Amino acid sequence: MSWRYLRSADRLTNNLSNQLINMKIFKTNTNITLFFAASVVAAWTVPKIAEGKEIVSEESDLKQASGGKCPPYGCPLLPRDMYFDEEAQKALKAIRMMNSQTPPNDDAQAEIELDWDQALELLKNVGGEDQATLTLIGYKGGNLQEQINQDRAFVISPYHIQEPEGKKTEASSKRLMGVFDGHAKLGELVSEYSVSTVPKLLSDKLEHILAQDSNSVQKDIQMALIETFIEVDKTAPAEKSGGCTASIVLQLGGYAYVANAGDSRSLIATYNKSTSEVKIAYVTREDKPDLPEERSRVEKMGGQVYVPSLDKMQMGASSRVLYVDPVTGGTNGLAMSRSIGDWAAGEKGVIPDPTVDVIDIKALIEGDRECSVEVDAASGETSTAELCHGEIEVFAVSATDGLLDFMDINDIAKKVAMSLYADDGPHPLSACESLITTAASAWWQAKNGKYRDDIAIAVSKLSLD
Prior knowledge:
Elements: H1 14-17, H2 30-39, E1 49-50, E2 53-54, H3 58-65, E3 76-77, H4 86-98, H5 106-110, H6 116-122, E4 131-136, E5 151-156, E6 174-183, H7 187-210, H8 217-235, E7 243-244, E8 246-252, E9 255-261, E10 265-272, E11 278-283, H9 292-300, E12 304-306, H10 310-314, E13 320-324, E14 331-334, E15 340-341, H11 343-346, E16 355-360, H12 361-368, E17 373-375, E18 382-384, E19 392-399, H13 401-404, H14 409-421, H15 428-447, E20 455-461
């Protein structure tokens, strides 16, 4: 039974509750179960403290800055921790169980503490039927209570940009989504600042661009994205240490602008509703120091790139830009050639300038569309069959390397597509939960429980209104 058929109150009945069961994504897995069991001591007390400074959650920070209301650019969906946030965990569990197709046993049924509406209400600022965000804090060694999640994400739909009267972006569809992966000692401060600052800066720049008559709008928008990343880098709280990746997708009408700095990634994909086929149309590159053009820039700026042996790289080792850590005085290596913050590495060639590509959403829809042609016997005129209309859908996914290091992008795209479009697919929040769970288990197995990266994901339809 699809989650789509559970939204109406008449379906949330006692009869329905007897037909529900846990989804297959949470089959017993010894490794991840042991990790979560070991972590439960700190489950509800994970601190948000670094260097004596409290890190305010994105949602609280954004609302406080705008007088308790959403910012002028729109209300962001912001991720909650799928395991260590007790309220979110209960809501996700209820959605998962109500999304299943096999009746639960009595014990499983007794564990459902929320109904469908209650669960969705609790997570309304996290995701819905068209978009979703979710995160899971990692483990970097040491005391469990001292772990800090440095990953951030958001989806803003609609993304408000003030336009002059009489000038409207084609189809009026405006969305902004992305992820920010903090690293180094104070990386969470930089990712927190970025997720709060990028939407406003970019909105202000786009307002100016859309108010002008220009034949170079796309180039101007690309430049606005680059300038936004550079300005955030300059003003970020990156003293003395800290940085973050940034991978965002901006939809303006029939075009998607994808800006990426670092080794988080965003992808654009299509879903064929007739065949259920999923195709990756575009995916950002990982900005690694060993890429020829990246290595050349770093070395020209006086930096040094460490490239591990092929055997080590096949085992997961990464090339790195070497720099002197301003806190410890030791030599560190940054596993990316572009990022926000990381000022010490910036002196050695690491830049915040993102690569920015433009994807024609309409072209994807038309290019993937297989239409049958009908010929009128009397007139001989041809026409496109109705089945062609609305057959192709386009969506986007942004994720940090905590997910991407252990998940194939094709598998990610297929899971997300089924959740966004298939009648028998999981809810988008459940799809994100499933992907994170799979990656977390893989981290546990690969690192023997000694390390697991933070994980964050954001997904959204790129519909043309």
